[in-house]
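Ligand: EPU. Inputs:
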Amino acid sequence: MDKIVIQGGARLDGEIEVSGAKNASLPILAATLLSSEPQTLLGIPKLMDVTTTQKLLQRMGAKITEQDGTCSVQVGTVENCEASYDLVKTMRASILVLGPLVARCGEAHVSLPGGCAIGARPIQLHLTALEKMGAEIKIEHGMIHAKAGKLKGAKIYFELPTVTGTENLMMAATLAEGTTTIENAACEPEIVDLAQFLNACGARINGAGTDRITIQGVASLKGASYRVMPDRIEAGTFMIAAAITKGDLVIRHGRSEHLVSVIDKLRGAGATISEEKDLLRVKGGAIHAVDVKTLPYPGFPTDMQAQMMALMSISDGLSVITETIFENRFNHVAELRRMGAQIRLEGNHAVIKGVPKLSGAPVMASDLRASASLILAGLVAQGETEVLRIYHLDRGYERIEEKLSKVGATIRRVKGSA
Ligand code: EPU
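Predicted complex:
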């Protein structure tokens, strides 16, 4: 397994580019199952989770080619409507094939995702909503078996605004008979991106980005060419990299409209941020303590909580970070403590007493965003930090060590270590 080694203390300066969004690419790739025509996708990042999704699609009969950043996908016929445990266990987002498969083939067999490091992560809301659309669902031997003649439009109310649940239902409803409404839908920008792709293929979706989405079913979807949105969490991670190193970064493809809550908190924490179209500039200064609570979009993203905690660990005061989305998303705390951070956990609150400096140490990544938080801490810690188990990082950040080293970080990947 590879590890990342960082010599802390360098101030980051220069221009850094954000890749296409992981959490938009995964549902958009899954959505290619809905049509027999060729799809051209631009800006799909090179990430482990993308490779896993492509493998999943290929097993179902997709022909996929990649050239110069363009991913072409065609699922002429679905040869196999099963997503087996060997792939699902490595990536929970595999559940995103459920809706498209039932809609296109009338059946799907998808391994039930288990819990993961950050929480139990049930998918009951996806299943009951599909049942409302006429699917018969059974869970046997760890597999979800879904069957339906033709799905029927339905009124869906989500008890919680689930992101992949909203995406699964939206995809299923594009080919259903009649109109589906999703109330209390998740509003994340990745849902808007998926809806725009589907509409480019001929779907009739309205209201994506609000809590009420309406989908009028159509008989079939055609091919389209579509560029996925930039990754707002990668952009947010780079914003914190600038703030924590008291650097000055121009973040290309940083979309301020997707990062309103993050920008607000970072300004409160002392960063100077200017916003332009498709670009953000972040200059770090004295780091002030701010309280943060994670919430569904447009609230502060749970996917930025760990990175914000790294920043708060060297603030000038006491801050409280409250996690409200996932029940176990504080795995980075013990590792940040090994680097000298003073953090106390009280239920879903982390109380962080800023210290003047962190000290480099070997640390273990436990999930994707926790890995990013340890990299950020390593950038500012005195001495050397080794981040182990970085396969988590490779699931969601494209060439992060290359990008950070180009703007001045002393960071390298060491191949094949523990
Ligand atoms: N929930 C239920 N029942 C369900 C579905 C969800 O109780 O049937 C709960 C979850 O347990 C959680 C809350 O609803 O407490 C929100 O979960 P959601 O379903 O929205 O999460 P998700 O769709 O599984 C996506 C992202 C995550 C991100 C969350 C929240 C993708 C592929 N994944 O997950 O991204 O943290 O939304 O914004 O889009 C990451 O990229 O690191 C990541 C974990």
